[in-house]
Write a structure and sequence with these properties.
Rossmann fold, 6-stranded mixed β-sheet, single chain, 2 domains, 3-stranded antiparallel β-sheet, alpha/beta
Length: 260
């Protein structure tokens, strides 16, 4: 398989607004990508394009998992897990933890189909892997914000997704909960689950990420290997402010940010 995702010349509209413009990007085997950009740069639209929730117009193309022909979206989504703060707020059905995780088998909000013993077992294994099996019989709307986010991560991986899309997954989490969540992602990465991670906080880019894509005004501003992309000059130009980047223990931190 030569690529997981390949996007070619994609223009994407949300309503009447052209959000992504002539976008070209691909993700290869053994790569994990961080996507950085200011609010309004097109990050969430980019994630929805990869997930197949939005489609490009005027001849733009998206291909998945080495298949150069257009794949049925149902087949694509079986291999992709999606976690976002936005999704968490929309999951408003009364359900136990294991039921939320099991709903990942059907890509549904809530359970509307009978769960097989194998699917229920997969849900419990997914929670056990993340160390949250104690939440299996807790009502989702009674969980803490961080616990609910981990349940959604277990939901995203219940079908053993080959690719995880994480759209600002640490938004709203306090620092200890955020670090615990990031440790869970690191554990998944060791199992060779590949990830695309959207953020505007560079300290969330864990050592296992290999590449960085900068989006700016709906276009690819710059992309490449992380060690080349994560420097003060590139980040400052991408964000439109003066940023000083420092590295510590394999992670990057912005120590200064002021307007140019």
């Amino acid at each position: 398989m030569s690529f997981l995702v390949k996007i070619k010349n994609a223009d994407v509209y949300v309503g009447e607004n052209k959000v992504l413009k002539s976008l070209n990007w691909s993700m290869g085997k053994n790569e994990n990508w961080a996507v950085i950009g200011n609010n309004g740069a097109g990050k969430t639209t980019f994630m929805k394009l990869i997930f197949g929730e939005l489609i490009p117009v005027y001849g733009g193309e998206v291909s998945w998992f080495g298949n150069k022909e257009r794949s049925p979206l149902a087949e694509v989504r079986e291999k992709i897990g999606y976690v976002s703060a936005e999704y968490q707020s929309s999951y408003d059905r009364p359900a136990l933890g294991w039921e939320v995780v099991a709903s990942g088998h059907f890509s549904s909000i809530g359970l509307h189909e009978e769960v097989t013993p194998q699917q229920k077992d997969a849900a419990f294994k997914s929670m056990d892997y993340l160390g949250i099996e104690y939440l299996s019989n807790t009502l989702y709307n009674h969980m803490s914000y961080g616990e609910a986010r981990k349940i959604l991560l277990a939901r995203a991986m219940v079908r053993r997704a080959r690719l995880l899309i994480l759209d600002e997954p640490c938004s709203g989490l306090d620092v200890p909960t955020r670090e615990n969540f990031l440790e869970s992602l690191e554990k998944l990465a060791r199992k060779r689950t590949q990830m695309i991670y959207v953020t505007h906080r560079i300290e969330e880019i864990m050592p296992f990420f290999t590449h960085v894509l900068y989006l700016k005004n709906g276009k690819v501003f710059k992309q490449g290997r992380k060690e080349v992309m994560m420097n003060s000059e590139v980040l400052s130009n991408a964000l439109g402010c003066s940023v000083m980047v420092e590295k510590s223990s394999g992670r990057f931190y912005a120590t200064l940010c002021r307007g140019k």
